[in-house]
Structure formats: C-alpha cells, structure tokens
Design the sequence.
C-alpha cells in the first residue's frame, strides 16, 4: 500500500510538467493559427474600418480621431491582445483542430478568406446598423411604453 501511495504521489507530481508541456504545444498551435490568419493585420484593418464607420455616422467625433486611434493602439493592439486571443482559441479548439484549421488558412483559399474577413465583418456590421436605424422608432416606442408602465403589443 505504501508503494502504491508513493507511486501515486510521484505521478501527481509529474502531472503539472505534462500539462505544462501540453499547454506549450497547444499554445504554439494556437499562435501558429493566429499567425496564419494574419490576425495582427486583420485587427488593425478592423479597427480602422470601425473608426471610419463611426466618424462617418457621427462626424462630430472626427476631431477626436487621433486620440481614439492612440487609445486603440494602446489597449487594442495585437501585442496587448495576442495572449488573451490565443487562450480563447485554446479553450475552443483542441491542438489537432488548431493544426487542421492552420493547414486550411495556409492554402490559397484560406488566405483569400483571411484577406476578405475584415471587409465581410464590416459589411455585416453595416447591415446590422442599417436594420437598427430603420426600426429604431419601434425600439424607442417599446422602451417608452415599458418606462411608462405600458405593455407593448
């Protein structure tokens, strides 16, 4: 029994080393995927497009665009987000899955998908914003009715 206990404790002591090695290769797979997706460029493009859209919709903020860009560079740059994004991918995908996805993004079609992603996201956001704007009076009426204690149909 004593031998079994010592063996069990010894195996438990090795678990953090194994998990650490697995985490390192899993993290490397996540980082390889993010690199093949050109996440740094994609993030920069997305932020640029988002700022352009915001300034277009609200020209009054145009004089503050420089400060907004500096803020995003400080807190939303790839360097500041990379570790957190890698963790998200590690939580959602196994290491083999990350490697399969990376293999796809290294193909010509995968690279085309990467290059089109910021534009697709931007266009999707524009559609969503347009729909909200088109139906904003309905939302405002529902909120006003609720605030006034009235129930909406």
Sequence:
């Amino acid at each position: 029994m004593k031998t079994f206990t010592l063996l069990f404790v010894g195996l438990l002591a090795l678990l953090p080393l194994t998990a650490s090695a697995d985490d390192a290769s899993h993290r490397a797979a996540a980082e390889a995927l993010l690199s093949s997706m050109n996440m740094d460029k994609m993030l920069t493009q997305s932020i640029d497009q988002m700022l352009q859209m915001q300034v277009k919709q609200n020209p009054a903020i145009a004089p503050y665009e420089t400060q907004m860009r500096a803020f995003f560079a400080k807190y939303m740059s790839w360097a500041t987000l990379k570790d957190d994004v890698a963790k998200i991918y590690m939580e959602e995908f196994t290491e083999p899955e990350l490697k399969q996805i990376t293999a796809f993004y290294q193909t010509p079609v995968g690279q085309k998908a990467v290059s089109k992603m910021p534009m697709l996201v931007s266009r999707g956001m524009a559609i969503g914003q347009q729909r909200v704007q088109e139906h904003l009076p309905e939302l405002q009426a529902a909120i006003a009715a609720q605030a006034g204690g009235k129930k909406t149909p």
